[in-house]
Structures are given as C-alpha cells and as structure tokens.
Amino acid sequence: MIPYLFGASPAICSSFLQGKPTTLPFEETGNGMYYLLYATSLRLSDLGYTNKSQSNLGITFNDLHEYVAGLKRAIKTPSEEYAKIGLQKDGKYLQINSNILQIENELYAPIRPKRVTRRGETPSDALLRGGIEYIEVRSLDINPFSPIGVDAQQVRFLDLFMVWCALADAPEMSSDELLCTRTNWNRVILEGRKPGLTLGDWLRKRAVPAGSGGQRSVPRFTPRGADPGQYPRWPGISAGLRRAAGLL
C-alpha cells in the first residue's frame, strides 16, 4: 500500500548496477540515469536499500517471540556470499562477521517493531524486556515535492493506516501467504503504475487488479469518521494497542 501510493524513486543512477547485467527492462535518460517506466520505488528493490540474502529468512510478525527468534537465528546463520568476501584484508576489517545478519539493525524489512535500548542491550533483548514501544516504517520514499521530504497528507494517512492496522483483525500469516505478499511487493515497486497490473490473492488463489486492496481498505476508514458515536472507547483502544505490543 505505502509504495503504491507514495513511491517516488522510479529512477536510479547507473552506478547502482555496478556494471553487472540485469534482467530489468531499464530505459536510459542519457545522463547516467536508468529508469523503469512503471516503477514506484526502486529504492525498495534489490537494487536499493535491501539485501537479497535476507529474502529467505522467513521472519514474520505473527508473534513477538517468533520475530525475535527469527532475528537471532539470522545473526547466527552463515552466508556463503559474505564468507567469500572474508573478514580482513591488509589488516583491515571488511565486515564484522560472515553471517546473513551481522547486526540486528541490518534487517532490511519494510517495517520493524522497536524499543529504545538500554546500555549494552540489543534491540531484540529490548523488545523481549518491554514489548514494542514504536513501529519503524521504512517503506516511505522522500517526497520530492516537499522541502522536508514528507507532507502533512502523507503523515495523516500513515497515522490513520497504522492505527487501523493495529486494531483490525490480523490472522496469522503462513509461509505461503508471506511468499505471496513478497511477490506482490516486488510487483508494486517495479511496475506498480502499469495499467492492468494484477497481484496475487493468496486466500482466493487468483489474481486481482493492483490497487483494489486499497480501494477496499479506504472505505473501512471512513464510516467511523462520518459518525463520531461509532468510535470505540479510548481505554479499549489503548488496551488493544498494548496487547498488540506484547505489554499485557
């Protein structure tokens, strides 16, 4: 949803390719820039701020303890790709270690649960100690039309969207559904503006038009706004958010 609505990086500098061949149908601007005609956010693709070796980690957000366990497992899992680089060259360290995740903050996920750490504490230990304190949204591109990189409309939408995500029913996500979600994610960031683009619907095993999910979701935000009397009591919302954060 977020890159579909707010993606703002359909072009990249040719240096990102590092001279390597690519199967993506890039077009050139003639000044060292490559772009995909229907892309929304190449920054979120494998060419941007991501890590291919993390694609098969299977870290989900079904349960806080499962999330932390997956994070700790990735830190201890060796990577053949990083092992080829080596740890040192000419007496200088090239990397901390050769595991898939060298530190927990290297998990390049679109969204991450977080808690402020205490001295000597890892991010995952902080989560286990006190639950989720805040959510880190990492899928928002810099808005090129705003002098500060984001505008009020985006912030208001994200605020409403995140509260809705916290309060809406959220069945556990299976490994098959996670794979489908990642496939859809890649389609949206690489060709999200393509007319007639379809995305996989894991539940119904069929393709649906891109954007239809947003069209179904937005009306869910509006009825309560039309009638303030439909809002749930704030103590109930607070308790729901605290349960979602693992505090109760």
TrEMBL record:
Molecular functions per Gene Ontology: ATP binding; glutamate-cysteine ligase activity; metal ion binding
GO biological process: glutathione biosynthetic process
Pathway: Sulfur metabolism; glutathione biosynthesis; glutathione from L-cysteine and L-glutamate: step 1/2
EC number: 6.3.2.2
Catalysis performed (reactions): L-cysteine + L-glutamate + ATP = gamma-L-glutamyl-L-cysteine + ADP + phosphate + H(+)
Region span, Disordered: 210-229
UniProt family annotation: Belongs to the glutamate--cysteine ligase type 1 family. Type 1 subfamily.
Protein name: Glutamate--cysteine ligase
Taxon lineage: Bacteria, Pseudomonadati, Pseudomonadota, Gammaproteobacteria, Enterobacterales
Gene from which this protein is expressed: gshA_1
